[in-house]
Amino acid sequence: MTDDAAEVLNAFRAYTEPRDGLGDNSFKVACSFDEPATDVEIASAWPGAEVPGELAQVWSTSRQSRLFEDVDYGQWGLVLLSPEGAAERTMQERGQRSGDCRDDDVVIGEFLGDQELVVFAPSEGDGRRVLVALPMDDRPDWYSAAPASPSSWIAT
Q1: What topology is assigned to 5-152 in CATH?
Q2: Residue 152's pLDDT is what?
Q3: Could you state, in order of their start, the residue ranges of all structural domains in the chain?
Q4: Strand pairing category for 78-80 and 106-111
Q5: What b-and-e string marks burial along 53-67, b requiring 16 or more CB atoms within 10 Å of the CB?
Q6: Which residues of the chain have pLDDT under 50?
Q7: DSSP labels for 35-57?
Q8: What is the pLDDT of residues 19-54, one digit of tens each?
Q9: pLDDT of the residue at 153
Q10: How far apart are CA 145 and CA 60, in angstroms?
């Protein structure tokens, strides 16, 4: 197991070539990765805010990533947003859902073909560190996608 968020993301590089159906998925999917974001880019996207170390690791590995994207139709997969994209989407969600978003929440991803968001929630308790925010549900109904430790984000 790993405790490094960058290693977790790098594990998906094995899927850069399109593959037919993984698990129960019948779509042809692939992962793609941008160049790493610089420290200056990360800091400029989040002026005056402390960027959690796990997010800085991910962005320093790939500015933006597309995980298990349906390469034929683009209707399935997950986009991990760039530092700037995450900052913009976080501000948008804070404005629209102020009762659900905490000051330290960061919207880090969007599911393709759906409206669910991935939220990094440092102050969330009970191991609910990475949440999936459903568009019509209040925060208590968001479900946990991952605990606090990156070591359990993937199986090795």
Answers
A1: SMI1/KNR4-like (3.40.1580)
A2: 45
A3: 5-152
A4: antiparallel
A5: ebbbbbbbbbbbbbb
A6: 1-2, 150-156
A7: PPPPHHHHHHHSTTSPPPHHHHH
A8: 776 666 677 889 999 999 999 999 999 998 889 888
A9: 45
A10: 22
